[in-house]
Amino acid sequence: MGKKKGAVFLDRDGTIIEEVNYLRHPAEIRLLPGAARALRIMQERYPLVIVTNQAGVARGYFDEQRLEEIHRHLEGLLNMEEGRLAGIYYCPHHPEAVCTSYRQECQCRKPKPGMLQAAARDLAIDLSKSYTVGDKLSDIGAGKNAGTKTILVRTGYGKEHEKQIAGSPFCPDYIADNLLAAANWILQHG
Ligand SMILES: [Zn+2]
Q1: Given this model, what pLDDT does residue 57 score?
Q2: Pick the catalytic residue: 13, 63, 126, 135?
Q3: Which residue in 14, 134, 167, 179 is deepest, having the highest Cβ count within 10 Å?
């Protein structure tokens, strides 16, 4: 039991890459400054797993094949800077989806913990030794609901969501200026 290790769960948009409203093409991907370096320093100790809500699929803005292309391109960009991911999990659902096959109250859309729990099963991860990093309180909620420690980053929507912490049930364990600062905190506290 005690042999499982923790992971770091990372939000995608606004945390690793620049926030783009419904990013729908690989060419729109821009790594945030220091993001690849943050991955390099964390990956020695933790598997790194992206967990991302992608309601653009449910809304019919792009399909899952396009989303796979976007994720292959993102992995390529990270690999060029020697950043490695252990997995990418996405939620394509939305309760008001135009595509009926994606219209559901699923268990994977953050702040629900389904994606983190699926990754924990697939990769033999101990969630109690894990961290979740994101720019939205829904990321913090997913991390809390899965039993991980949580870090809000001030990139993307982070500064706006930081102001909403007081009225939210989801309080992060730490607030970092960016992913690199979050990585440094994780390595000091892990
Ligand atoms: Zn879902």
Answers
A1: 95
A2: 13
A3: 134
Alpha helices in 81-133 (DSSP H): 114-123
11 classed as catalytic? yes
- With a cut of 60, say whether residue 121 has pLDDT above it: yes
Q: What is the mean pLDDT of residues 11-39?
A: 97
How many whole angstroms from 128 Cα to the centroid of ligand 1?
Answer: 23
pTM of the predicted model over 0.85: yes
Distance 129 CA to ligand 1 centre (A): 24
Q: How far is ligand 1, taken at its centre, from the CA of residue 107, in Å?
A: 6
How much distance in Å is there from the Cα of 103 to the middle of ligand 1?
9
Q: Which of 183, 154, 186, 187 is nearest to 83 (CA)?
A: 183
